[in-house]
Amino acid sequence: MRADTQASDTSDKADYDSPWKEALERFFPEFLALLFPAIHDQIDWRVAPEFLDKELQQIGGNSPRGRRHADKLVRVRAKDGSDLYVLIHVEVQGDPEGDFGARMFLYQTRLRDRYNTDVVSLAVLTDTSPRFRPKSFRHARWGCGIVFRFPMVKLLDYTSPERWAEMEASDNVFALVVMAQIQAKVTDDAETLKRWKFRLMRLMYERGHERALIEEVLRLIDWMIRLPAALEAEFRQELYAYEEQRQMPYVTTFEQAGIEKGMELGVQQGEARTLLRQLDLKFGPEAVQTHRERIEQAELEQLDTWLGRILSAETPETIFH
Q: What is the secondary structure of 11-42 as a DSSP string?
C-alpha cells in the first residue's frame, strides 16, 4: 500500500474532542435519542437544555485531564411531574483508561455535593479496545463499601451489520456523527476511509434536510474524518461532481469557500470557535477580546497546538507563546 494512502498519516492531527463537544451541544436531544433512548424519554424537552461547561470545568479542575475525552454537563427537566431539574454529565472517552470508573465517580460526587440535585452520569466509549467496558466503580474496606454504576455505550458495538444498517437507515442526524467517529477510529486504509466519508456525506444530502442542518453535520463529519492532502483533494472533486449531478438547490459550505479550500476552512472556523469558547470559559471575555483576531486568522495546525495547550494553561499568554 502506498504511504500516502495510510489513514494513520493524519492521526497526529485528529481531534475527536472538539467535534464531540460541539456535536453534543448542537444535537443533544438527538444524541440521547440515538444512544440513550430510555433517558431521552424521561426528559421534558419543552424546556431547553442548559449547558454548564464553565461549572463542569470548575468541578473537574483538579482531575486528571487530557485531550483523550470530551465532557459535557447539561441541566434538563424531568417530565415525571416533579418539576425536578436533573444534571446529566456526559463523558466521551477516546482511549482505555484504568481509572475511568473512579473519575466518573469523582465527578458524580462533586456535582451532587455542589448542586444538591440528581446527577445522571453517562459514558460514551469511542476507543477500539473490545475489552475496555467500564460500567461501575467499586471500593470496599473493612466492611465499608461503595458501588457506583453508570450507563455506558460502546461505539465499537455499532459496527455489527445489524446495528450499522439501523444507523444508516435512521432519520436521526446524530447517527451520521457516530458513524463518522467509528470509521475514523477503525479504518486504517485512507482510500477506504475516503469512500466512507463520501458515503456518509451523500446520505446527508439524500435525506432532504434543510441547508443549515446539512452544513452543520457535514462540517462535523469533515472534522472527524481527516484525510491525507492528496486524497482530500480527490474527495472534494468527487463531492463537487456529485453536487452538480444532483443539481443541488442550495450552495454548500464546500462551494462557498471554493473547491480547493472549502473543507479546510470549515474545520479551521470550527476549531477557532471552539478555542474562543474554551478561552472564555477558562479566562473570561477580556481574554477573548484580546486574542480573537489572532485566533480567527490562525492556520489549522496552529489552532490544533493552541487547543492542546489551553487544557493546562495557567494564563492566556502561555497558550500563544
A: GGG---HHHHHHHHHHSHHHHHHHH-HHHHTT
Q: Crossing angle for the helix pair 229-246 and 190-206, nearest 10 degrees?
A: 30
| Distance between CA atoms of residues 193 and 160, nearest Å | 18
Q: Give the Cβ contact number of residue 173 at 10 Å.
A: 22
Q: Where in the chain is the domain with CATH 3.30.300?
A: 28-156
Report how far apart, in Å, the C-alpha atoms of 312 and of each of 67, 91, 150, 166, 235 are. 11, 19, 28, 40, 36
Res 133 pLDDT > 60: yes
Q: For residue range 105-129, list pLDDT tens digits in order.
A: 999 999 999 999 999 999 999 999 9
- In CATH, the architecture of 28-156 is 2-Layer Sandwich (3.30)
8 A C-beta contact, residue 91 and residue 123: yes
d(CA 49, CA 51): 7
pLDDT greater than 60 at residue 196 = yes
Mean pLDDT confidence for 185-194: 91
Q: Give pLDDT tens digits for 274-295.
A: 888 888 878 888 888 888 888 8
